[in-house]
Each structure stands twice: as structure tokens, then as C-alpha cells.
Specification:
Layout: E1 2-8, E2 11-16, E3 26-35, H1 38-46, E4 66-67, E5 71-79, E6 91-94, E7 97-98, H2 104-107, E8 118-119, E9 132-136, E10 140-142, H3 149-152, H4 155-167, E11 175-179, H5 183-195, E12 199-203, H6 207-216, E13 220-222, H7 229-237, E14 241-246, H8 251-260, E15 261-269, H9 282-285, E16 290-293, H10 301-309, H11 315-318, E17 319-324, H12 328-338, E18 344-348
Parallel strand pairs: 11-12, 11-14, 12-13, 14-15, 15-16, 17-18
Antiparallel strand pairs: 1-2, 1-4, 3-5, 3-9, 3-18, 5-6, 6-10, 7-8
Helix pairs in contact: 4-5, 7-8
């Protein structure tokens, strides 16, 4: 079968590899659609970050080259002995977190904080950019009737956004700002709308993404090249937002997000970082602000799919390009690096 594999930064290849084999407790999936994630781009541009290179990953026992892709949907074609949650023919999405099940966080049910955290498609295990993949039964969630496979490919990134809003201090009626209107930032805007935020603002350079942010619920979008972001947000909100979400991974933006929060406000860091960022702690201390980070999600995929059925996180509003697996490098990864007008690119795993 064909699969996209990561060898090193700027070196990913569509190759022919062996089709995976089902085992006890495992589910074999025919992959339908896979999204290219910001984390995939980080690995492509500046990895390894989550990709194991020198030593195999604790959970997957794989190391580079690894099959990429972790935002995907598909159909169950085979189940191993002991599997009861799904059966052949079921449409499913995959929650791609790899965890050890043994550390303190795992024992408390917070598997996304696992000491050995990894991701199927970033840390080995099979990925979502082959024609077929095999995953543990607990990672599979059956899709509701009528939910399209394209929509299923957005469950994973929408889960990141919903988890970020759920773990924030935001309450219905609060004001929020989202720094960065990339796919995750746009999904955070929708999650904020679902959570009852009264005012949502975005900070974004791209005119296309700014327009999409407004379409999805942002009251106003600030271009940091044209205005002082902090001053403008404080003016619009009469002193600052209750919660700021940092989604860019750009060092200077983190300080802006902190400063844009009101006294006792909160900044939630959603992005994955390629470099360090410096902040002035007094800007936190003197206003009794808080800064917290979130990673991935836990126990949330069914809720995401329920919101999708209510009209949130719709593929028709977020997907700007659909391509084949053969074209994933040039028309997918390179396009996202060079063309900032794209929102979400989906890749069809199966040949026409």
C-alpha cells in the first residue's frame, strides 16, 4: 500500500510499504480522509518534535522513518480477537493519542498528560497517511449516522479547540481573543461560540483567514501589522479580555496575549513551539493573571461529533483544498508552507 513517511525535516516521501496486519485488541481501518495538521507542518519544517529518531517511542516502539498523519476518518474492515466496540463496516474516527497507561497521569485518567505521550502518526504506530492503518480498540470512536468522512477528519483538530476552551476559565458571557486564525484558531473561535462567549476577537495577518474568522464568529479581527494589538483589544473590551488563546507559536505573540488579558485574566497556550519565548513575569504578577498550557484532549471526541451534528466545525466552511495521497507533498505540505490563504487541506487516502 501507499503511505507518507517522515525521514527528517524537509524529507517526507510517499512510498509503498507493507499493509498492516490485525492483532488481538486491534482494529484495522481503511483510511478515507486525513487532514494536514499544524503539528505535521512543524515536523516537516523543523522536526523532529514528536517523531522518535534515536530511540523507539515508548508506546509505539517505532522510530523514523514513520508514517505520518493523525487527523483522519475511515471504515473498519477487520477487528482482532476481543474487540467489541466496533465491527467491520463501521465508520470511525481515531483518537490518536499514544500513552503508557502506567504513569501517574495515566492512572488518574489524564492520558493526554502521559509521561510518554505520543501520537499515532507523529510518534509511530501507523499514521493516517497510508491506505490502511491498525490502532488499539480504545482509540476508535464510531461516527454518528449521517456524519460524512470529510467531517470525521476534522474531529481531531476540533477536539484540541474544544479541550482548550473547556479547560479555560471562560464562562458564558465572557470576552475572549484568539491569537492566530489558522485551522486550530478558527476552531477555537467556534468552540468559544458554542461555550457562550459574548465577544470574540481574533488577531491575524492573512486577509483570507481574517475573513473566515469573522464568518465563524469573531466580532472583529486585528491585523498586527496595522494596529497595536494590545491597545486595540483593551479599547474594544474596556480593559482586556477574560481569556486569551495563543495559537501561533510565535514568541512575541505570547507576551501580547498575556498583556491583552484583563486583570485576573487568563492566557491559554494552545500551540506547539519550535523555540523558546521570553515574557515579562511582572505583567502576570502585577495583574494577578494566569497562564496555562493545554496539550491535545481527553474524553472529548463524542462531544465534538455531537456539536458537529448541531452545525459547528463544519468541513464545508473550513476545507479549502482536497488532494490525493500522491500529491500530498507538493500540493499539501508545500502549499501550506507557501500559501497562507489555505485553511484546511484534506487528503484522500484511497485511490480513485
Amino acid at each position: 500500500m501507499k503511505a507518507l513517511r517522515w525521514y527528517e525535516a524537509k524529507n517526507i516521501r510517499v512510498e509503498t510499504i507493507d499493509e498492516p496486519v490485525t492483532a488481538p485488541g486491534k482494529v484495522k481501518i481503511q483510511v478515507e480522509w486525513t487532514g494536514i495538521c499544524g503539528s505535521d507542518l512543524h515536523e516537516y519544517a523543523a522536526g523532529p518534535i514528536f517523531v522518535p529518531v534515536k530511540e523507539p517511542h515508548y508506546a509505539s516502539r517505532d522510530r523514523a522513518p514513520i508514517v505520518m498523519g493523525h487527523e483522519f476518518s475511515g471504515r473498519v474492515i477487520e477487528v482482532g480477537a476481543g474487540v467489541t466496540r466496533v465491527q467491520p463496516g463501521d465508520p470511525v474516527v481515531v483518537e490518536p493519542i499514544l500513552s503508557c497507561g502506567e504513569c501517574a497521569a495515566c492512572k488518574k485518567g489524564k492520558y493526554n498528560l502521559c509521561k510518554h505521550l505520543g501520537f499515532h502518526g507523529l510518534s509511530g504506530g501507523g499514521g493516517g497517511f497510508p491506505e490502511y492503518t491498525v490502532v488499539d480498540e480504545h482509540m476508535v470512536h464510531k461516527m454518528p449516522d449521517g456524519l460524512p468522512f470529510e467531517q470525521g477528519a476534522l474531529v481531531e483538530p476540533a477536539a484540541v479547540a474544544l479541550h482548550a476552551v473547556r479547560l479555560s476559565k471562560l464562562k458564558a458571557g465572557d470576552k475572549a481573543a484568539v491569537f492566530g486564525a489558522d485551522p486550530i484558531g478558527l476552531l477555537v473561535i467556534e468552540a468559544l461560540r458554542a461555550a457562550g462567549a459574548s465577544e470574540i476577537y481574533a488577531v491575524e495577518l492573512s486577509p483570507e483567514r481574517a475573513a473566515k474568522a469573522r464568518e465563524l464568529g469573531a466580532r472583529d479581527v486585528i491585523n498586527p501589522k496595522e494596529e497595536n494589538v494590545v491597545e486595540r483589544l483593551q479599547e474594544l473590551t474596556d480593559g482586556g479580555v477574560d481569556v486569551a488563546f495563543e495559537v501561533t507559536g510565535v514568541p512575541v505573540v505570547l507576551q501580547q496575549a498575556i498583556d491583552a488579558a484583563t486583570f485576573e485574566g487568563e492566557t491559554v497556550i494552545v500551540s506547539i513551539w519550535e523555540s523558546e519565548a521570553s515574557v515579562q513575569p511582572n505583567n502576570v504578577v502585577l495583574q494577578e493573571r494566569t497562564v496555562k498550557g493545554i496539550i491535545a484532549y481527553r474524553d472529548i471526541s463524542p462531544a465534538v461529533m455531537e456539536l458537529m451534528q448541531q452545525g459547528y466545525f463544519l468541513a464545508e466552511k473550513l476545507v479549502t483544498k482536497r488532494i490525493s495521497l500522491d500529491d500530498v507533498v507538493a500540493e499539501g505540505f508545500e502549499a501550506l508552507v507557501k500559501e497562507k490563504n489555505h485553511i484546511k487541506i484534506l487528503v484522500k487516502a484511497q485511490p480513485d
